[in-house]
Amino acid sequence: MADKKKTFTVEQVRSANRRPARQTETLVGLGLNKLHRQATVEDTPATRGMLKKVQHLVRVVDGK
User: Fold this and answer.
1) Cβ–Cβ under 8 Å, residues 9 and 57
2) By percentage, how much of the chain surpasses pLDDT 70?
3) Which of 9, 26, 29, 53 is most buried, judging by how many CB atoms fall within 10 Å of its CB?
């Protein structure tokens, strides 16, 4: 069987307006830049750290 990597889907639920530039850049790095956009990202320590930095702006929709 092929090696399956764990992924999860995140959705941006709050605006990045009037937030520090680093938080906006983190959202773009996750593939999010507008409200209610969803992105599927790989479950790695780097992406978990990115989510922790913007946890007040996003929510995890699905974890597989």
Assistant:
1) no
2) 92
3) 26
